[in-house]
Amino acid sequence: MFSTKLALQLLLQKCSSSLIHVFLFWITCLILVFFVIVKPYFLKSSSVYLVDFSCLKPPSFCRVPFSTFLENASKFRSFDSESMAFMSKILSSSGQSEETFLPPALHYIPPKTHHQESIKEVHMALFAVMDDLLTKTSLSPTDIDVLIVNCCGFCPSPSLSSIVVNKYAMRSDVESFNLSGMGCSASALAIDLAKNILKTHENSNAVILSTEILSEGWYSGHEKPKLLLNCLFRMGSAAILLSNKKEAKKFSKYEVVKTLRTQRAFEDKAYLSAIREEDSNGKLGVTLRRDLLQVAGETLRSNVAVMGSSLLPLKEKFRYGVSVLRRRFLDKSGEIYVPDFKTVIEHFCLPTSGGPVIREIGKGLKLEKRDMEAALMTLHRFGNQSSSSLWYELAYLEAKDRVKKGDKVWQLGMGSGPKCNSVLLKCVRPIVGESSKGPWADCIHRYPVLH
To answer: Short name of one Pfam family for this protein (predicted)?
Structure first.
């Protein structure tokens, strides 16, 4: 009797232990199912997609060959012979072609730089690309939940974003933002802002409008550091649609994989390297100081270092780390290994600040000529269009049929402040037929050009 009871207890304990093990097994399985299947499903719903974008193709009457620019400038009483010689030299070495554009206000003698002309330029630059984007995406203005407009130098009241809201009769609850004073990196910065907003606003569309109003920034004095922008900046604008709607993946071009912002405004030297100020005669202009390139390099390195730490494969990180340690403890004259970003990124959109700057950035990232082509050709055809240049570069890559499904595109924007902003995009569908539309439609067959 006792042995039977003991055997029964042992059997119950064994069964109980087995049941616990079975229970734990199924709990483990459910957890694995959640992390492998269920969790990624929910995460996908929070992805932000770049549905499409549009770039302005300025009208032909805005074209400004070098000879026209210099002839008109020579008739301005504000420029002396030394100023003319300096601007002629800058134009010839700028990397621009004879086909870049300036707004109508700057074709007058003297230029019309008052407020109303700048407003006309806003209408010309923003409404055209907005209309094109709405047509491309079959989007109604009332479908827009977030609107971000960026322009560095022109900040009217009502704001540029209010001008757009008024023009398109958007909803009363549209979240509108106006970014000013952010320089050439503002478009990439706006992508970062829109992405963060969409993280907390489900099932939403965000439109970004990016431009620079040149009539407001024209400098009519003699100081050479301020004359540079007259020669380098040209007309352009872009409109970009982002969405986190579940159905957006089916028709979007790209997924926004990563954004990154770094800056060095906390350093006086960096802060003052590019600043808008009055000259000795009270004329307003942007001063570009001699140490700007050095500051830009330092700002770029900090951004690239963070991007590399999250993107590069272990092999590249290891080689970089070893070279840093070797230089620090063994051979201080040794070179630090430059990681190969092309192991994880197929296409690069670089700042169009000038040919030498593009090549120097390319050298720092170990890029080949083909990798820098989009930036160099955008500079050649359209000039430096400030923050919207990155989208002309992406349009160039698409027009050349180079962007394939699965490819990653790194947009790198650098601006005053100084700041450096990165956007990493992943192509999520085949992109074809772009050579017949967009800003490159009438000239893509002529590019690349050697210059």
So the answer is: FAE1_CUT1_RppA
Q: For residue 361, which of 333, 383, 338 has the smallest C-alpha distance?
A: 338
pTM (predicted TM-score):
0.87
Query: Cα torsion at 38, 40, 42, 47 (round to 10°)?
Result: -170
Beta strands in 109-173 (DSSP E): 146-150
359 three-state secondary structure: helix
pLDDT for position 14: 57
Alpha-carbon span 304 to 425, nearest angstrom: 16
The whole-angstrom separation of Cα 354 and Cα 356 is 6
Structure tokens at 362: 């390319």
For residue 348, list its beta bridge partners.
410
CA atoms within 13 A on the CB side of 121: 31
- Bridge partners of 63? 101
E strand residue ranges, 124-185:
146-150, 175-179
Kindly report the average pLDDT of the chain as a whole number.
88
CA atoms within 13 A on the CB side of 184: 26
Query: pLDDT digit string (tens) for 380-395?
Result: 999 999 999 999 999 9
Here the tokens at position 212 are 């620079």
- Using 50, 70 and 90 to split pLDDT, how confident is the model at 25? low
Provide the β-strand partners of residue 262. 420
At residue 268, the 3 state secondary structure works out as helix
List the structure tokens of 395: 């349009």
Half-sphere exposure of 3 (CA within 13 A, CB side): 0
Q: Which helix (H) or strand (E) holds 311?
A: helix 292-311
Report how far residue 189's alpha carbon sits from residue 259's, in angstroms, rounded to the nearest whole number. 8
Confidence of residue 43 (pLDDT cuts 50, 70, 90): very low
Which residues have CB under 8 Å from 253's CB, separation 6+?
Answer: 50, 51, 52, 53, 427, 428, 429, 431
CA distance 378 to 96: 9
Shortest CA distance to 180 belongs to which of 206, 210, 207? 210
How many C-beta atoms lie closer than 10 Å to residue 273's C-beta?
23
Provide CB contacts within 8 A for 333, sequence distance 6+.
327
Residue 386 is classified by DSSP as: G
Phi and psi of 146, rounded to 5°?
-135, 135
What is the model's pLDDT at position 170? 97
Residues 129-144, mean pLDDT to the nearest whole number: 97
Q: How far apart are CA 317 and CA 353, in angstroms?
A: 29
